[in-house]
Amino acid sequence: MNDYFYLDSQNRQHGPISPDKFAENGVSPQTLVWCNGMKDWMPAESVPELQEFFKPFAAGPQPPQPPHYNAPQHEAPQPNSYNSQHLPPCPDTHMVAAVLVTICCCLPFGIVAIVKANQVTTFYYQGLYDQAVIASADADKWVKLALLFGVISFCTYGGLTLLSVL
Amino acid sequence: MVLLALMAAGLSLFLLDPAAYALMPKCPFKLLTGLDCPGCGFQRAMHALLHGRVAEAWAFNRFMIYSVPYCLGLMLTEWVWRGERQARWRKVLEGKVAAWTYIVLFCLWGVVRNVYPQL
Predict the structure, then answer these.
(1) What is the per-residue pLDDT for A39?
(2) What is the pLDDT of chain A when averaged over all its residues?
(3) Most Cβ neighbours (<10 Å): which of A114, A122, B72, B90?
């Protein structure tokens, strides 16, 4: 039996865990799961190997699902989920913003942002989802720093120009 | 958000000639060091480009011939394309090779333009 990754209600990836740990981790038949060799995330109940595992669910009276169990499906059309054909949604890379801030002259911070943005994709395609999320947050932080730096210097410059004109 | 900011920036760069107004944003790097940074001339170049003056744009900032298409490619990848095509282009454009090529060229251009200002 394979170990499976699964998505929680916030579409965050967890695992891999063995299917007999599903219950204690809140994995329901509708939870999206994935394991090595699968093309796409699937509801656990549609994975042949797991069907047997969920039989008690189907046979017995089914407890009402807490609403958030269905959330992954509802969230599926979110911007990033187009990618879920093979992997969980890639976190925002902030690459566009990073390149833009470098061009617009906030040099050192912008370059750090590009490096971090690149790490997001690199980690992501290596399957290191958690690191990708961290890199994404870092990229965002450096883009914002660069912007802040740019705005401050612009305001300083604008203020000085105004003063000298007056 | 980014898209809105871009549109606002694009519009103001189309309407205003950055060389003509003292209050248009200036490069903090140039103000501090007196050197041209790799991005210097970008606003003037964009202004020229938006008015169809490609040669003038090229003269203001040589690096844009690389950075503008690259940036457009990134925007398509992140904002327009979905699914397989997005994943494929993301690996190319945001991969190690592309990102580091960009950074190295960016820095090289920054050095070259200060060593050979006539370029």
Answers:
(1) 78
(2) 77
(3) A114
Q: Hunting for tokens 């660069």 — which residue is that?
A: A146
Reduce the DSSP state of residue A4 to 3 states and report it: strand
Q: Is the pLDDT of residue B88 over 70?
A: yes
Tokens of B11: 């519009």
> CB within 8 A of A78, min separation 6: which ones?
A11, A89
Q: Which of residues 69-128 of A touch B (CB under 8 A)?
A: 82-83, 85-86, 90, 93, 95-97, 99-100, 102-107, 111, 114-115, 117-118, 120-122, 125
Clarify whether residues A12 and A77 are in a common domain. Answer: yes
Looking up tokens 């900011």 gives: B5
Q: Taking residues A160-165, what's their average pLDDT?
A: 80
The residue in chain B having the minimum alpha-carbon distance to the alpha carbon of residue A150 is B28
What gap in Å lies between CA B49 and CA A126, rounded to an integer? 39
DSSP one-letter code for B77: I
d(CA B45, CA B12): 13
Which of A27, A48, A82 is the last residue in one of the domains? A82
Give me the domain span that covers residue A119: 95-165
This model of the complex carries an ipTM of 0.82
